[in-house]
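ok trying this again, last paste got cut off
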Amino acid sequence: MIKTIRSHFLTKWIGIMAILLFFASSLRHWMLQSTGFDLGIYDQVAYLLSRGMEPISSYLGFHHMGNHTAYSFYVMAIPYWIYPSVYWLLGIQAVCLALGAFPTWLLARQAGLSAALSSAMAAVYLLHPLVFNVNMFDFHPEVMGLPVLLLALWLARNDQKFWFCVAVLFVLGCKDALSVTIAAMGFWLLVFEKRRFYGAFALICGVVWFFLATQWIIPALSGNEAAALGRYQEVLGGDSVLEVALNLFRKPGIVLGKIFSADTFQYLALLFVPFIWGLSPRYMVPLVSVIPVVLLNILSKNDGQRDLVHQYSLPVLPFLLLSVIDSLAHGRGLIRQRRWIILWMLVIFLVLGKYSRYWQGYTSHLSTWHASREALALIPPNEGKVITDNYHAPHLSHRRDINLLRLRKFKEDYMDVDYVLINMTHPWNEDHEKANTIFNRLNRLKFLEVTYERDGVYLFTRKQS
């Protein structure tokens, strides 16, 4: 059996894709383009967990579970216990994203597609620009849930109750927002697929976890409502998650105005055009499961929720794939030949993939790369409080206390700091005015001294008493 797995074409595809994704994200990190928000946050939490310390993120100022209630992330303590390295996050993210091809292939074979079409669907998944683009944006726990969500769909149709329940619980623990997708999936399974147990379990778990996370866990541990609430308050108003939800019905004009807008049309085009060759209206019922998350993305003031660059549309991908599989299984679809399907997705990837950032965006800071590397090497790996910018932060997160440069609460932040690393040549967001203000204030702090300076990169160190 092991020999069969090794020789299977999908094993090779997944292995090659995982290596490519890991290399791509590692190169970005090596080029000092990854950021404290969010790679640094999860790197610090994983490190603290692996050392038996309470996972309180100094970036956020509260417990890890008060962020996105991502209890499934706790498993990351195991590799970090073996050897703490941020590359565990990048590697596991790459593997999880590549692994999604396997349950996609399983779903295709389960639906009765030929070996050629099933392999084509696996290629469709691997070539989808969202898979590559999300891999380039630091680390997010929901990528761990993507292959498991695809597998849950296969398990439901294969009548595997126990493992379906395990899969659902794991996905819920990847991010609080996934609860709405799980609940909607449960509704689809219950009403349209007529799978009562699976539908009821997913629906109940999704609804219960949504309320537990947003009404109890997050407020109790963070002291505030869910972090994403502000993205909807500006559009719908309301002071809480429940009040914003009620305003969906109280303010239909605003909701409809957002739905029927150019931004929404563009977003829906990004979602559907890659699959236009295989979608058939009659077999798009699985997309009932993504109505809530698509609506949330449409209503958000954050434009990043309406693209194929960030992680917000990841929950949509499994159900689009399933809709295409069901369509092909019933003899529908504009393109049914493997070579043309793969060629179409290759074109889509070339158009929508963000690979050009390597020579258009990521090279912009190379003039200070050597200086930054030298300064980073002067800071002890696990000791002292550090304050630095968003780009340096994920290289210094293996400690209890690290924060980003800011003017707000200056005295509170800097009075007990041990190291401050600042890049005056390429400050975060190229905000030179803010960087100059911080730099001048740092120079006035008598307990700090400049111990390194090159190419506009400065390292301030607390003086020895």
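PB: full thing came through this time. The chain has two domains: 2-224+261-358, 362-462.
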